[in-house]
Amino acid sequence: MAVARMNMNCSIQSSLSCILKPSYFFNFKTTQFKNRLYFPQNHLISSKRSLLCTCSGNFQAGEKAEPFVITTPLYYVNAPPHMGSAYSTIAADAIARFQRLLGKRVILITGTDEHGEKIATAASACGSSPREHCDVISQAYKMLWKDLDIAYDKFIRTTDPKHEAIVEEFYFRVLAKNDIYRADYEGLYCVNCEEYKDEKELLENNCCPTHLKSCVPRKEDNYFFALSKYQKPLEEILEQNPDFVQPSYRLNEVQGWIKNGLRDFSISRAAVEWGIPVPTDNKQTIYVWFDALLGYISALLEDKEQISLQSAVSSGWPASLHLIGKDILRFHAVYWPAMLMSAGLSLPKMVFGHGFLTKDGMKMGKSLGNTIEPNELVHKFGADAVRYFFLREVEFGSDGDYSEERFVNIVNAHLANTIGNLLNRTLGLLKKNCQLTLVVDSTIAAEGKDFKDTVEELVEKARINYENLSLSSACEAVLEIGNAGNLYMDKHQPWSLFKQGGAASEAAAKDLVVILEAMRIIAIALSPVAPSLCRQIYEQLGYSEDQFDNLNWSETKWGGLKGGQVMAQPKPVFARIEQIKENENGAEAAPQKVVKKKEKKQKVQGVIEA
């Protein structure tokens, strides 16, 4: 699936020209039907900061647990990664990490969509072959995922031989179902969108509403998938399983599309050379969506495994969750289920369409100089800050806005102050007064204190929100544990109690155990969102990296810290971000304290996929 459409111009690295993603939805007028094609039935075959995650959950050894398979879109390689694709992948990684904490065997699939006319055009623009171009951009995605702490399990490229073999077998399955036929079609075609447009959606002079350029008449002879045949089955699926498309307002969109009538769509191109050849006609190539959607299945194949649909499906299909941008919802919630039904395969359990990103309340564009480059963002602020801001500040499913000032304010207030400073000053007091050693078990230290109940309630709230894909609310619940810890510290003032000695000093030592137990729980509960930060917190509490990597959500239960346990030397786990401002001469001025200002809501003029 091509990278979600960007309604913007974006800056392109490596001297690639700026091109918009195709959406590939075909509305066409059929002018002549030719014979349906039939083929013999024998064509059917019934970590740590590691880039590749090898720990698929803390499940019981020897068990054949049903996997939790989550997918990002397969990103279109006409251009380097943008913030929209980074956001999709950060969210998918957080969900996958949470599911691993629950003890599930998780398979996180990501990858790149590498066929189509735009790929060939982009490659030609920078003087390289399509294959060379795909290699460069695909590697750029892998490097960014590493920088963002993405622990994926499978990275599929649609130019992989195993993927092409799966596409060919799938094509024959659908063909044998009598769902592929050949026909002429014509219509108004948007070159930039690479799709046929319905006249009802065009502006004056047949202009595309996205690119404001006139669509051109085009007629081709291609192969079609009989989508209209599956209108009734799709209606029944959505009626019987309303959770299939989420959030609920996305379900309403999909039901509206189906209600308006489904049209068969072209699954081949005669004029596009860079693609998988149609198995029955080497003069045409498979249309990119009919090709790329199957990457979710071909990715499941193990190395050296027999390449077949059956082998891939038995390795984890159906997917538990397709996580996508809302602009490619039609392909995942209408086209894809129909294709799977035709091939006799199970449907994914859920398709979740998230929103778009804006910057400072405005659309992003190269001409405006306000694009968000994910590589620059992560190298400037770090992976934890980027992950936390977008998951905490963008309500998952809705559109969201980025501004650097708000980014710095949120990250400093939440990660540096509420969490980082609480840990640092607590350990500082423990070092000064208790030689970094806990005096009692955390269960004993919390006896008779409401604080323990508050933390347990907030942890449960975080768990429920993670499970419901309410990632922002999950972050908020964990942050509230930090806020409660700071209030507890300020109320009990252990630094004063230590000065009094005797029973007061003993009470102060217990207070530090209580706060550090809350920090231990935060390190687990926030780890899906900010894994590197949480690892540092856990290590400061005297645990090893291996212990952190093998955590389970059940360990958020109060009582992990034990008397006699020795903490590590205190050091800041998250440094405050200082904004550097230039003076009138263009030189860097001294760092200035960021002051959060009241923001005025601005009308959103355009968006990039979030």
Structure report:
The chain is an alpha/beta fold. It is built from 20 helices and 17 strands. 42% of the residues lie in helices and 14% in strands. The strands form four sheets. A six-stranded parallel beta sheet has the order 4-3-2-13-14-8, with helices on both faces. Helix 5 (231-240) packs antiparallel against helix 6, helix 13 packs across helix 16 and helix 15 (450-467) runs antiparallel to helix 16. Belongs to the class-I aminoacyl-tRNA synthetase family.
List strands and helices in order, with pairings:
Blueprint: E1 29-36, E2 68-76, H1 83-101, E3 106-113, H2 117-125, H3 130-147, E4 154-157, H4 161-176, E5 180-190, E6 195-197, E7 216-225, H5 231-240, E8 245-246, H6 248-259, E9 265-266, E10 268-269, E11 277-278, E12 281-286, H7 288-292, H8 295-298, H9 309-314, E13 321-325, H10 329-343, E14 351-354, E15 356-359, H11 374-381, H12 383-393, E16 400-402, H13 404-434, H14 442-445, H15 450-467, H16 471-492, H17 494-500, H18 502-525, H19 531-540, H20 545-549, E17 608-609
Parallel strand pairs: 2-3, 2-13, 3-4, 8-14, 13-14, 15-16
Antiparallel strand pairs: 1-5, 5-6, 5-7, 7-9, 10-12, 11-12, 15-17
Family: Belongs to the class-I aminoacyl-tRNA synthetase family.
EC number: 6.1.1.10
Pfam family, one: Anticodon_3
